[in-house]
What does this fold into?
Amino acid sequence: MGSNTSNDKVEKAPGAPAVAGSQTLLRGLDMLDKVIDGPVKLAELSARMELTRSTTHRLANALINRGFLTHLPRDGYQLGPKLIQLGFLAQSQADIVQISRPRIEELAAQTEDTVHLGRMDNDHALYLDKIPGRRRVDISSRIGDRQPLTSTGLGKAMLIDGTEAEWTRLFDMDQAEGAPKADRETWFERMRGYASAGHAYDLEENEDLIRCVAAPIRDVSGKIVAAISVSSAAQYMDDDRMAAMSADVRGTAEAISRDLGWAPGAKPARGRR
It folds into this structure.
């Protein structure tokens, strides 16, 4: 195997753009992207990279030596064990509050309303961060508060992938523990709509005269790990504004999800209802 230094000459397939030796690292990273969907044989990988087979083979061998690729004799090249290790470390180092803060600050400035970040904690919604709005609206939530999942926007957003059996368990538990009284059929009908739309509302269910729009945050596997919400007084949150705001809230939640490694298409299928 040849050494891949900045002086290496990278051969290109006919018609392909010229590649300077200093771009070897970028080519190696590109190669990882080309095999992300599963094993790829040398001929196909060479075509995807727009490089000759000899250059593709040399780059692949360098990545194999470092553990970033593996080679299966009958199937071709695929991602290697080093990436599993790095992915685990990156996920363990991810601080969702720190990662989310710039995004939710921007959303708070854009909407002029209070933005919350929360995650699930023992069948409750745990508030992790709060960016106050510019309006003179008193919202009683505090960082560290634990609220019912089934009556808060944050909580319902974190439940949209759940089964109706799970919804039933949590709804009954919250009602028994003193959550604001809710009509079962109305709640389930709304949850089905939220699950289809990808966002959830709090229609003064958790706190009088306070409404919110919420959306889930996903990790690299597509699993919901947290949620954000925009909250304000009902006088500033009529139905039309909530509907118009939903895309922005989902967009911010999806941006945070991408920061955590999520990619569209990674969302797991919801359980049977």
